[in-house]
Design brief:
Blueprint lengths: L3 H21 L1 H5 L2 H21 L2 H25 L4 H15 L1 H4 L9 H13 L18 H14 L10 H18 L2 H21 L4 H25 L9 H19 L1
């Protein structure tokens, strides 16, 4: 591990490289905040993927890529006279100090649990000068819907709006299943979409209440489906066929084979 001085020197080197690229590389010089935004989103997903895979080397690399992007935005803003990287760092430092009075403020040294901090987080943020005017204001519209649902539910929880016990959520999930089934019979496409949305939101809520990351859970299921369907394809190709030429019964049988093969590997 590096010393704090070495860490600071590395960050300074990154800023120096950013300056050189911005001034001497045509591609870097042509970029705007808008043009690199999509690339930043890509980097966030690459970091998330590395974390889910538990690949520490990849996590290290992707953190570096994101740091480069942060330096890029700050450099562009400095050219525009809007702000610089020091302003960004100062803002987040001030924010973290304000939001952790048990560490830095009037409650310094006071015993406090992680649950208490999480439960009062949104209330503390609401008192913050220059913060969001409403609890849900800081959630981007462009955020993927599953992640947005979790963020909204977490923020609501921070204000005390949550189920008292995890098991209380199941009545709501069952209620939403019934409403989806009814909407399927009504033939109203818009209403059906609304009810499916309500059902998905309630299932995401249930996962959150039981400490399951719904994004990671769904991603794991997608990976499982990919493996098993790849098995179906590989087996049918060996016969000179493709899956669409087999009946459902044959496809189900191959699916069961894939499941059995996976179980055998873990035993």
């Amino acid at each position: 591990m590096h010393s704090r001085e070495e860490e600071m020197a590395s960050f300074g080197r990154l800023l120096d490289i950013m300056d050189e690229l911005r001034e001497k590389c045509p591609w870097n010089a042509a970029q705007t905040m808008e043009s690199i935004r999509r690339l930043t989103e890509e980097e966030v997903y690459e970091l998330s993927d590395a974390v889910l895979k538990g690949d520490s080397e990849a996590v290290s690399k992707e953190i570096g890529d994101l740091l480069y992007h942060m330096a890029f935005y700050a450099r562009i803003a400095r050219e525009q006279g809007a702000f610089d990287i020091a302003d960004c760092i100062e803002k987040v430092c001030s924010k973290m100090i304000f939001r952790h009075p048990h560490v830095f403020g009037e409650r310094k040294g006071e015993e406090v649990s992680a649950k208490e901090i999480a439960d009062t987080w949104e209330l503390v943020k609401a008192k913050e000068k220059g913060g969001n005017k409403t609890v849900l204001e800081g959630i981007p519209d462009a955020m993927p819907a599953l992640l947005k649902a979790v963020a909204m539910q977490e923020k609501a929880r921070g204000c005390g709006f949550d189920w008292e016990k995890p098991q209380d959520v199941w009545a709501k999930v069952c209620e939403e299943v019934g409403e989806v089934q009814q909407a399927c019979s009504d033939g109203d496409a818009a209403h059906l979409q609304e009810e499916f949305g309500d059902l998905l939101f309630s299932v995401i809520n249930a996962a959150r209440l039981y400490g399951v990351d719904p994004e990671a859970a769904l991603n794991g299921t997608c990976g499982k489906f990919r493996r098993r369907f790849n098995y179906i394809e590989s087996q049918t190709l060996k016969k000179g066929l493709n899956p669409s030429e087999l009946g459902l019964a044959a496809l189900d049988a191959l699916w069961d084979e894939a499941k059995a093969a996976e179980r055998a590997k873990t035993e």
